[in-house]
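Continuing the series of single-chain predictions for the mutant panel. This is the parent chain; the variants come on the following pages.
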Amino acid sequence: MIRQIIEAKGVRLEFLPPYSPDYNPIEEAFAELKAWCKRNQVLIDSYASYDLFLEAGLRHLQKNPGNHFRSALIDLES
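Parent structure:
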């Protein structure tokens, strides 16, 4: 029933093996966020809070979200 509701909205479901980090876009996104935080560590004090620093990192990730799906071999066009 849930599957039918989701597909009726035009969303394509991708089923993955139980543990498959190579095919999971969030794994790569977290790795990129962690790398961004390390590269920009010297800027932490210029933000009012660590939450705002992380939000800046998330905005960086939002610039090219499709890259994570392509790396996981998920075609966003079909």
